[in-house]
Design goal:
Blueprint: E1 2-5, E2 8-13, E3 25-29, H1 40-47, E4 52-56, H2 72-85, E5 91-96, H3 98-109, E6 114-120, H4 130-138, H5 140-151, H6 168-182, H7 188-198, H8 202-208, E7 213-218, H9 230-233, E8 239-244, H10 250-253, H11 255-265
Parallel strand pairs: 3-4, 3-5, 5-6, 6-7, 7-8
Antiparallel strand pairs: 1-2, 2-4
Length: 268
């Protein structure tokens, strides 16, 4: 589906199903230098089991036009505007990494509009190493290789990941290169990392959130280790943590575990 938000086109993957106003809606927000496709293994199932799915491309990423958000706060306002454009009084927000910060901040700014919140690979604060931040600006292809080394814990994926022979790190690297190339006007890699690094409002945001919150973390995550989410988990009013055997790319490395955690948490 295509929505218009702030005079720009926003692409949202629906899992191959038409939008049904009678069903509850799940809005998925990806991380830095990713797009809607990182959710493919979860959204396909959920779209065929009673939910509307809107897996968006952030502004200036993939199939969405517009200017990439310069801050988490700006992206959160954009996400709330997307709910308006989609005619959604309320929805469940699901975010990964940078997307988890966006979903969390949006839930704090509009608590009555968020039924449930799912945060994957999150941290407070989500600091980016100076070396990686610099490389994302001046040597983005080298930085992509660095991120993929840090993001993956498994040498070979389980058979449930798109079938035997799938190379998860290679696929992730190709996606990041494609998203980087999709916007020749702005370095969306550096913009996303800079926004993550500059955001310090996580704990204050969690204090304002009223929705039940599920935290999903990878036991072997080197980008956002499980302990980095503890300041948020401790402040969540209705928080729950699920650990899966994966690194930062947990939706691809542990797709069934992530989906199981979601389906047990989500309520129609």
């Amino acid at each position: 589906m295509i929505f218009t938000v702030h005079n720009a086109a926003v692409y949202a993957y629906t899992g191959g199903k038409s939008f049904n106003p009678a069903q509850p809606t799940l809005v998925f927000v990806h991380g830095v230098l990713n797009d809607h496709s990182v959710w493919i293994l979860q959204t396909r199932y959920l779209a065929h089991h009673g939910w509307n799915v809107l897996a968006v491309d952030l502004p200036g990423h993939g199939r969405s036009t517009g200017t990439p958000p310069a801050s988490v706060e700006e992206a959160a306002d954009w996400l709330i505007a997307l709910l308006d454009a989609a005619g959604l009084p309320a929805a469940t927000l699901i975010g990964h990494s940078f997307g988890s910060l966006i979903a969390m901040e949006a839930a704090a700014r509009a608590p009555a509009r968020v039924r449930q919140l799912v945060l994957l690979g999150t941290a407070a604060p989500m600091k980016v190493s100076p070396a990686l931040l610099e490389a994302s600006l001046n040597q983005p292809l080298a930085a992509i290789d660095m991120v993929n080394r840090f993001s993956h814990a498994l040498l070979a994926p389980p058979p449930s990941v798109l079938g035997p022979g799938t190379w998860v790190p290679g696929g992730a690297r190709a996606l990041m290169r494609r998203v980087l190339a999709s916007n020749p006007a702005v370095n969306v890699f550096h913009a996303g990392f800079k926004a993550c690094d500059a955001y310090h409002g996580g704990e204050a945001a969690m204090d304002k959130i009223e929705a039940p919150t599920l935290f999903i973390a990878g036991r072997r995550d080197q980008m956002t280790p499980p302990q980095a989410a503890q300041p948020l988990i401790g402040r969540a009013r209705h928080g729950r943590l699920v650990l899966v055997d994966a690194g930062h790319d947990l939706m691809a490395e542990a797709p069934e575990e992530v989906l199981s955690a979601m389906t047990h948490f989500l309520s129609p």
